[in-house]
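Reopening closed ticket. The problem is back. First fold of the pair:
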Amino acid sequence: MRWKSNYFEIQDLIIQFANAFDSIVIGRYNKNRVQKDRIFVRYLYAPKQRVLYDIVNKAKTITLPVVAISINSMTRDNDRVFNKLPAVGQTGPGNGLYYQDSFAHDKYNMPTPVNISVNFSIITRYQMDMDQILSNFIPYTNPYIIISWPVPKDLVNLVTPQEIRSEVLWDGNINLQYPLELRAGDKARVTADTTFTIKGWIFPASENAIDNIYKVTTNWYPVSGGRGTGTVLTSDNYPSLATELSGTPGSDHLTISAFPDEIEVFRTQQNQE
């Protein structure tokens, strides 16, 4: 938790999800099924209970038909989890990085895959309106759609803009409710509830840290033996001292390299015996 991360991933996903359905238009037809008028369906990011409250209050700020969108739950998707730790000599998913170009200039850590369950509630006054709204999205979400959204700009300065494509899966169930009992003055409403799952990502903060060091190369020179004991290396005598030391028989060249050992966690019954 040393780095605070908030890249508006959830907000961007909900906006793109709403935009995918925001073009639904219903028609008003006469008895000969000739369209006489068109009405755009309104979309609100709010629970259905809040929308119903606003419909019946005195302000009456919401007109029907309307679609209410709200988040129901959020879970970690184990099927889309890659290795969080970098692997030696590997690039791409599985090495702790979600993306890395060929020069390693653009890279960022592996995000957490999350499944966002979204409630999709339709509220209409007429059955014909409900039928048209259902007919507008059922054939195109059979059983999923794809939405695209950009990699957060504040995450890393990408040379090449990156696009993320997320699957939006429809659960295939629609719960319809009709007004069975109405009091005097109540207006009839038809409601339908269904659920979508957005397969998104939550990114960790960019640490801007140095990669793991696996190899160190250095040169060793006996400075005290080059010009006598007690010689102090300064900017004035460094050029001549470096020339003398370059051929000193006592100089050493050292290279140290190492990789983490693999730990054998699982053993067969035969090896244990």
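Second fold of the pair, where the issue appears:
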Amino acid sequence: MSVKLHGIDVSVYQGNIDWKKVYDSGIYFAMIKSSQGCSVKEPVGNYNPFVDSKFKQNIINAYEVGIKCGVYHYVTCTTIEQAEKESDFLLSAINQYKDKITFPVAIDIEESRYCNRSLKEQNTKFVRIFAEKLKSAGYKPILYSYRSFLNNYIDLDALKDIDIWLAVYFTPRRTEPAPDFNNMTMWQWTSSGVTIPGINVNVDCNIAYKNYAQIKGDLNNDGIVDSVDALILKRYLTGSFDLTDEQKQLADINDDGEVDSLDYLSLRRKIISAL
């Protein structure tokens, strides 16, 4: 994996963060908690969604210093009806900050008490409901959880189009090699023991293997998608030019995992529509 970007994920539990110090320490991205279906102190089955009390402060301040921002929602729904309402609440919480969100919106589903192991199809439907609404609203969804939960409670074969943010903590702690797990594009590798300037308590540390903040089609990384990018892709498809792994991610316009003539046509349409 040639792309390796360091990030953190934060919530109210990290208190007041000095985001300039975080940025200066080399942190590229932050996954910021936006919301939750109900408090974990409430009975299972309750629907009482809320916005994380530090969400607004965190996303505004992180964005202003140059950190690439994603968000995450902690899922507590236990029925399809609740999943519909909870996903709508997530969108209502984040839409006013859409211009600041360049990394994915994570569907954080990790609590077995909210998901019946014998109802894997329903649990998977919860994820699909969130993902489709996020896509329709112009966000990139990603599924967050740990390995055993995903294997036992979720039908990953039905979610092959959704990237995975995987929580795996090794002992002793390490950041490479990365875990080999389905379509994992982000790895939460520790929740403690790493000092991040600007944060006075433990914080989850992550590595992203895809730069979601880059513009699809911008193959020369000049901030503009234009005929120069189309020429680069055409030369690659005709065998006269090689793309780096990062460029291939940007050239996969339709996100089907392949760089081919369909992407070239999509890129040409994108350029023409911008004229």
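Update: turned out to be a display glitch only; the data is intact. Residues 120-136 form the longest helix (17 residues). Residues 227-274 form one domain. Please close again.
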